[in-house]
Structure formats: C-alpha cells, structure tokens
C-alpha cells in the first residue's frame, strides 16, 4: 500500500528535496507552497504532513483544521526556525526536524510517523479443543 504525504514549504528547493526524500521512502507526495493550498487538498487519507513553520497567512487555520480532524499526530514540523521543536510540542505535532537536517534523520522521522498508524498484530485464541488460532490483522489508527 502506497503511503501518502503532503509537503508544505514555501522554498521550492527545499520542497523539491523533501518530495525526493519522501518518494525514496515509499510515499506518493503532493507538494504545495503554502497553507492555503494545503487546506484545499488535505484529506484524512494522508499518512504524513510535512509542514514548514508559518508557511503563509493561513498557518493557524491549518493547525486548527489538523487538530479538528485529529491529524496532528501525522505532522512533522520541518523548519529553520530555532523553536521548531517547541512549536511542534506545543501544537501536538508528531515531531520536528530543524533545517538543515541530516537526510537519514528526515527519512527515519517520516517513516516513524507514517508507521505509527499501522498497528500491531492481533491474536485471536479459541477453538473447540482450546488450541490457539492465530490470525494476523493490520489495522490503522485514525
């Protein structure tokens, strides 16, 4: 199953780099330059949202919408702002990386965030002779 990423950054060079890294990590990426564009295409099927701090006048609206739809646990704040980690913690985002960042660090973070939606194996026990029946299911957190 292809994972989906929404990348929001006002710097086209950084945006292109983030798309390349996300694609290499197995994401189908949509990149936009500001929060207004992101708000118009955001949906609950998005596994990862990479968000630059204060990427336009609609940043607070973006955060409010993400919070309202329970999507902040899919947000990675990616910013050169010195307080990126504090901002991420304050709004309830899944994490933050500060620009410049190590490529491996970014890749690990986005995989961790997207994979948190995938949950553990579920075991069902019980047949008539009390032998365990094991069934594996993967389910998703909203």
What does this protein look like?
Strands 2-1-3-4-5 form a five-stranded parallel beta sheet, sandwiched between helices. It contains five helices and five strands, in the order E-H-E-H-E-H-E-H-E-H. Helix 2 packs parallel to helix 3 (59-68). Residues 119-125 and 134-142 have low confidence and may be disordered. The chain has a single domain (3-116), classed as Rossmann fold (3-Layer(aba) Sandwich), CATH 3.40.50.2300. The chain has 142 residues and is of the alpha/beta class. The protein starts with a strand and ends in a 26-residue tail after the last helix. The chain has helices at residues 12-24, 35-41, 59-68, 84-91, 103-116; strands at residues 3-8, 27-32, 48-51, 75-79, 95-98. Helix 3 (59-68) links the parallel strand 3 and strand 4. Helix content is 37%, strand content 18%.
The first-level CATH class is given as Alpha Beta
> How many alpha or pi helices?
5
Number of domains: 1
Q: Report the biggest beta sheet as strand number plus sense, adding barrel if it closes.
A: 5 strands, parallel
* Gap from first CA to last CA: 16 Å
What is the CATH T-level topology?
A: Rossmann fold
Helix content: 25-40%
Structural shape? globular
